[in-house]
Design goal:
Layout lengths: L1 E6 L5 E7 L4 E5 L10 H7 L4 E5 L16 H14 L5 E6 L1 H13 L4 E7 L6 E2 L7 H5 L3 E2 L2 H8 L5 H12 L6 H11 L4 H12 L14 E6 L6 H10 L4 E5 L9 H4 L1 H14 L2
């Protein structure tokens, strides 16, 4: 595995790792998560692909500026990584908030450099609106209310922030996750300053990408989990809104959590591998 840095147009150094050779495959992490947590996917797909994973600004081994914690800036960062490394015809595998980054990327750059998308466990909108008909929030996967989100993000800046972040992790995984793996994930999450984490969560959660989904024109696979914080039906609805998208829900009994990339990498990797083969 090789490491390097890309410097963005606002002077922020983004740390990346890469492995393998062949077609380009880019891994985009979720909120407070890092390239290090993609190890199962890097090991699997570097056998056949040139795999790149990077840390968002404010995450992991990248620079931690006080500026830029919004989806448009993170999408621009992704675009700069792609161009600096000369990636093309990319299969993007995005997890959680990383899906929001790729939605913003599509909004700004359309399908530039992209060949396929894999979107793992992220609804298109995270805040329910007061005028939505009953049941719409569950159909969309909105996990917050307009009143609840500011309270939660403010708590991430308060005296109990560490405990709240640890509690957030508990909602992402199953009880079967080994304690050592949970500790590793939490250590990576703690590399992101909690004020930064609150800003980024607010930016991510206040976007509504539903109007963008029909605009996606590349082959797309959507993966969810039966034990995820987001209802499986909401992930299926997201896939239905993207023309021609395939969907795979990993059952709860198979540790299909929000962090199934770690809890059941063989199921996630198998679904991605089948998708790659079917769209070759």
């Amino acid at each position: 595995m090789r490491t390097g840095e890309v410097t963005t147009n606002d002077g922020v150094r983004l740390h990346y790792v890469e492995a393998g050779s062949g077609p380009d495959l880019l891994l985009i992490s979720g909120w407070t998560l890092t390239a290090a947590l993609w190890r199962h996917q890097i090991e699997e797909f570097s056998r056949t692909h040139h795999v790149v994973a990077y840390d968002h600004r404010g995450h992991g081994q990248s620079d931690h500026p006080r500026y830029g914690y919004r989806m448009a800036r993170l999408a621009a960062d992704a675009h700069e990584v792609v161009e600096a490394l000369g990636l093309s015809d990319i299969t993007v595998v995005a997890h959680s908030m990383g899906c929001g980054v790729i939605f913003a990327y599509w909004d700004l750059y359309r399908g530039e450099h992209l060949r396929r998308l894999v979107l793992i466990d992220q609804p298109p909108a995270l805040i329910s609106q007061p005028d939505w008909p009953e049941g719409t929030a569950a159909q969309v996967g909105a996990a917050y209310t307009a009143e609840g989100l500011p309270a939660f993000t403010a708590a991430l800046r308060g005296p109990q922030a560490g405990a709240i972040a640890a509690g957030a992790l508990d909602t992402m995984v199953t009880a079967q996750l080994p304690p050592g793996e949970r500790a590793e994930i939490l250590d990576q999450m703690r590399l992101t300053d909690l004020e930064v984490a609150s800003l980024l969560l607010f930016s991510s959660a206040t976007e509504d990408w539903r109007d963008l989904l029909p605009e996606i024109t590349v082959p797309t696979l959507v993966i969810g989990g039966g034990a995820s914080i987001f209802p499986a039906a909401s992930i299926e609805n997201l896939a239905a809104a993207i023309p021609g998208a395939a969907v795979r829900i990993i059952p709860a009994v198979d540790r299909g959590s929000h962090l199934s990339i770690i809890e059941n990498p063989s199921a996630v990797n198998g679904a991605i591998r089948a998708f790659l083969n079917s769209t070759a």
